[in-house]
Automatic annotation (TrEMBL):
EC number per UniProt: 2.7.1.24
Binding-site positions, ATP: 11-16
Annotated source species: Microbacterium aquilitoris
Protein name listed in UniProt: Dephospho-CoA kinase
CDD domains according to UniProt: DPCK
Gene Ontology MF term list: dephospho-CoA kinase activity
Function: Catalyzes the phosphorylation of the 3'-hydroxyl group of dephosphocoenzyme A to form coenzyme A.
Recorded superkingdom: Bacteria
Length: 198
């Protein structure tokens, strides 16, 4: 079972690559979706977050107020470390369960872990390949503003909070250049798929 890590900075085109790999037959395990699942109401993770950061990080319905929590921890490295200590072990456990389930269903499955925080949390895991979606920071900033409706200040803050591109590229086995057209990104992704299934 090839276990592939797919990562990239915000607005790097990682989701486009993940969707294409899924269309081609990969089992894509989405780290962000797992984070949402392990933080659902009634979960031990959500209880621990509320105990650590206060009940006011919950909505009236008992769900995590993601924006409220983000504003509380954003820019505070100690708070981020405390939050990660709660969330990352649960995500690691659940992702491993999903990897095993994919292989149990099909021992020849190509499993792709779509993981934004690979360098921060999972770089040392035994990946067969690390694939990095890459576009220059200036282009990603433009995408955040034009496609996601962020202000310039919000886009700059998001980019500044992430691992720098050089560190991400340094761990890459494969780089998919997403600065061009979507068709160019998809063509590179198809080439990767052909390599994974050869």
């Amino acid at each position: 079972m090839p276990l592939i890590a797919l990562t990239g900075g915000i607005a790097s085109g990682k989701s486009t690559i993940a969707r294409r790999l899924a269309e081609r037959g990969a089992v894509v395990v989405d780290a962000d979706a797992i984070v949402r699942d392990v933080q659902r109401p009634g979960s031990p993770v959500l209880d621990a977050i509320a105990a650590e950061f206060g009940r006011d990080v919950l909505t009236a319905a008992g769900e995590l107020d993601r924006a409220g929590l983000a504003s509380r921890v954003f820019g505070d490295p100690d708070a981020v470390t405390r939050l990660n200590a709660i969330v990352h072990p649960a995500v690691r456990e659940e992702s491993a369960r999903r990897f095993r389930a994919a292989v149990d269903a099909d021992p020849r499955a190509v499993v792709v872990y779509d993981v934004p925080l690979l360098l921060e949390a999972r770089a040392e895991d035994p990946w067969e390949l690390i694939v990095v979606a890459h576009a220059p920071a200036a282009l990603r900033r433009e995408r955040l503003i034009s496609l996601r409706g962020m202000t310039e200040a919000e886009a700059d803050a998001r980019l500044a909070a992430q691992v720098d591109d050089a560190r991400r590229l340094a761990i890459a086995d494969v780089v998919i250049d997403t600065a061009g057209s979507i068709d160019e990104t998809l063509a590179q992704t198809d080439d990767l798929w052909a390599r994974l299934t050869a």
